[in-house]
Amino acid sequence: MKAVVYQEPFKVTVEQMPDPKIEAPTDAVVRITTTNICGSDLHMYEGRTPAEPGFIFGHENMGIVEEVGSGVSKVQVGDRVSLPFNIGCGFCFNCERGMTGFCLTRL
Ligand SMILES: [Zn+2]
Ligand SMILES: [Zn+2]
User: Fold this and answer.
1) For the chain, which domains are there?
2) Which is higher by pLDDT, 79 or 87?
């Protein structure tokens, strides 16, 4: 897959990266169909907030689930999903009630 990689303020490159894979039972691999540049990417791009060279930009995406880990039960292969910046675990008290923006394990 290709990724936008931060190099230094006002310099990013598009590089070939390894394809993602399932590493934990709660992982899912999503084929990205749409993404964008977020305001927080621009803060890093312009040097207002710190970023290490090699950091991959792009954290708000949409796509199609291609693979899921053995512990994933709420999405399945073929589902179209939207991936906001705030990632919830899906199994804590708040996530179970649909309040993934208040996840207790991803603080
Ligand atoms: Zn963002
Ligand atoms: Zn949670």
Assistant:
1) 2-102 (3.90.180.10)
2) 79
Q: 56-80, pLDDT tens digit by residue?
A: 988 889 999 999 999 998 899 999 9
Instruction: Find the 24 Cα to ligand 1 centroid distance in Å.
Output: 24
Alpha-carbon gap, residue 25 to 101, rounded angstroms: 22
Closest ligand (CA of 37) = 1
For residue 87, which of 107, 67, 68 has the smallest C-alpha distance? 107
Residue range 16-38, pLDDT digits in tens: 999 999 999 989 999 999 988 88
Query: How far is Cα 74 from Cα 95, in angstroms, rounded to an integer?
Result: 12
Closest-lying ligand to the alpha carbon of 104? 2
Neighbours of 96 (CB within 10 A): 12
d(CA 53, CA 34): 24
